[in-house]
């Protein structure tokens, strides 16, 4: 008790004396058992003091791409044992849909089960080969040795070399075209091709896409071989294209074609030069470059999103609610010294329109465009062995912001970079794949072609017409009858309001148990004339047999008795 009084007395003077007094008399303490802690932690009233960094530093700088078309910066390794082939292709992003397929991957639970997957449609019209480039190996890398262009270049190709095509004289490649016509020029071309075969290590071809509303005649006319006279109509001036057909390829306003160098792999250098020389001014389809179930790489420029803040651009955590001068910011942007902001600090700036390469995209289908077989146009490039519906890959109403896909297309698994109508570079994979996922054979059971504007329901326009026929039907035939015929209710004979010809008897006026006037018997055999309706197979058009006045419709299997019709 005395010790307790001493402690209380010291506590009035200072807290430190209190602790001294307490430690001097440990007998005054009793052990207190702590209460059990709750399983729920208290909510924090502050931000966490550490977190992983936001955003990958391998993609810096996040700025707008200098090019609109994806650039191939690395080509697949050449294998001389394989035949000569292209290693890339160009296409245009059309849109997305989904498919249903059965998974064939033994050892997985999902094997032999159906799976719904999203796919992207890339329209790939045939490329046109218009040039050959040879490269020689130097200690500093590859150097261009020879470049040879074809004799005929289309306007859509030559437009790419002009900034203002309308004001120009349109004389590009005029001299290059003359080399294919005179004897001296042909000899020089033979020497250039021979020099390529002798000195070059890498051969690439110059190709361009077909985007304009018309296709140049070089897609129809084959170039004459060296040493033989080439056809030169009097109406064609040197360097200009042949007459054009009027087939529209892509739903674009664009008139400039996209031009690209694509490397040739396989075979010897001489075989590559011969392959390129034989295909000048000719089309190369996509199915000659890629194959079904192949794994490829996609190179494109992403969708541009403009200037964005740090929260949207780097996905950093927002500051607390009452933060001064905004909360969608980064609280600390670095130390005082060094007196500069580091490159790894998240800052506001450009988001989107970045050059990106996505590896290992699976090809689910290489579809063929509209073509003729036995004089008929074939459009069933979205049919499968399970779904035999005659339908094309274009959904009802077309792809949003794109339109119809009428040319060859490539169906890729998942999504790809870029917006609609953007040019996409498809490259053969740099790796040799051995995994079961990469080697799996894709067999689609169903491809969705419903409308992508809202919630689609119908796969084809015919299916929609059949289902919506009752809603699209015209008003009931009774409302089409003349007023005199519709209002008369007394017994007797009903005549045509236009010509007075006898039509029906009143005995069967309400025999169908309906308050609306309808008849099952006619006065004469030729009282009415009937003809089928093209959009209503369940009804026949009924008109007066004398003057042809429209009376209504005959509905099949809708009379007072089974199998009897009514008018």
Care to describe what's here?
The chain is α+β, with helices and mostly antiparallel strands and 567 residues long. Among the domains are: 1-30; 127-284, Ribosomal Protein L3, Chain: B, domain 2 (2-Layer Sandwich); 473-555, Beta Complex (Metal Binding Protein, Guanine Nucleotide Exchange Factor, Chain A). Helices cover 14% and strands 24% of the residues. It has helices at residues 2-11, 15-24, 155-158, 174-178, 183-199, 269-278, 310-314, 436-439, 461-467, 469-472, 483-487; strands at 85-86, 88-102, 114-123, 127-138, 141-149, 202-208, 259-265, 283-284, 295-301, 307-308, 349-350, 355-367, 371-373, 376-378, 409-413, 423-428, 444-447, 493-495, 502-505, 528-533, 536-544, 550-555. The strands form six sheets. Strands 1, 4, 5, 6, 7 and 8 form a six-stranded antiparallel sheet that branches. A six-stranded antiparallel β-barrel has the order 2-3-15-12-9-16. Helix 1 (2-11) runs antiparallel to helix 2 (15-24).
Would you tell me which CATH topology of the domain at 127-284 applies?
Ribosomal Protein L3, Chain: B, domain 2
Which CATH first-tier class of the domain at 127-284 would you pick? Alpha Beta
The percentage helix is 10-25%
- Based on DSSP secondary structure assignment, what is the total number of beta strands? 22
Mean pLDDT score, rounded?
82
Please give the largest β-sheet. 6 strands, antiparallel
Distance between the termini: 117 Å
What is the correct CATH architecture of the domain at 127-284?
Answer: 2-Layer Sandwich
Bin the strand percentage: 15-25%
- Number of distinct helices: 11
Q: Please state the overall shape, judged from the principal axes of the Cα atoms.
A: extended
- SS class: alpha+beta
Q: Indicate the low-confidence ranges by residue numbers.
A: 3-32, 214-246, 475-488
GO biological process, one term: innate immune response
Domain MsrB: 461-567
Region (Disordered): 217-245
GO cellular component, one term: cytoskeleton
